[in-house]
């Protein structure tokens, strides 16, 4: 299929599912991460010189070591060292492809620059502004943008760690204490009715295709449930969401899949929240529910192979994240065991050595012939969630 070797920066669950797809396609993969985490566990080096690398995916030396073993570098996490990636690209020249491009990763890993780029291209972004880490700056931002005000770290954010909702001015000191020493900006509060997401695949030629719109349900800033396809009240919203997501990914460079998170307003307006330059939690459902999964299409895109269809192959699907409620691994396996007796449910456990509150330990995808059937099948799983699940 392709004799090119793919190197993945990061070896968590997204790397694991990429590696699983690669193994089906017979594509060789080398993973760079510390320890023997989720991705390394499921793909064994095919030859001794292609063994996985133990080290940080932000360590320039380790990135160089990975680059010397592979033809294509890709990421399962955007919090990598984009400058190191650019240097590696300059050193290796055309012998090495990096997808998405270091330029794309650099922009996306700074949420403020990401928003500036999309705004400058005429895409729908709700009001935001730069602030320095001072109470005065936040007070004047609140005067312009109103309350609640969403204070965000520009960098290194995930699962809402990096966000602080300022509901009242007297919370400003707490907000600053929580996000001290991080580069900050603020966003106007968006009173959305739904959160939706679209996975977009971009080829090495810059062509973009999208997956169906899904509804994402967050609890405490962490994605909890995904429903596919999204059946909004506004019939036109699906088309506009896909067009917006495709237009946003068209502004970027390099190949692969991108997860586009959006807010849908009561009046049908759509705002882009943020983009991930990699497979995304809201696209896990594609493994069981679409003709080609986001993981397979990521590989096909970066290897310049023909893309697989992004269409649903089932009428309805849902994905439940399995998130640690405590350090108890038994709670996780017990939920997974419940899923074994649910028709249409597929269990994914990520092989993480330890469970922690708020940690993504796995997910369960449920497919069915109708939304009603999927919701019926989901019910026993929701009832079996450990108490204290975030
Ligand atoms: P992820 O794990 O998706 O990378 P993150 O840490 O980057 O998360 P965001 O996506 O910026 O965080 O925000 C997390 C959640 O907070 C959103 O999914 C949404 O529910 C809420 N949120 C973010 N920005 C706003 C806003 N401006 N107004 C209202 N709610 C918001
Ligand atoms: Mg994010
Ligand atoms: Mg997000």
Automatic annotation (TrEMBL):
Its EC number is 4.1.1.21. The keyword Ubl conjugation does not apply. It catalyses: 5-amino-1-(5-phospho-D-ribosyl)imidazole-4-carboxylate + H(+) = 5-amino-1-(5-phospho-beta-D-ribosyl)imidazole + CO2. Keywords: ATP-binding, Decarboxylase, Lyase, Nucleotide-binding, Purine biosynthesis. It is an enzyme of class 4 (lyase). Pathway: Purine metabolism; IMP biosynthesis via de novo pathway; 5-amino-1-(5-phospho-D-ribosyl)imidazole-4-carboxylate from 5-amino-1-(5-phospho-D-ribosyl)imidazole (carboxylase route): step 1/1. Residues 115-303 form the ATP-grasp domain. In the C-terminal section; belongs to the AIR carboxylase family. Class I subfamily. This is Phosphoribosylaminoimidazole carboxylase.
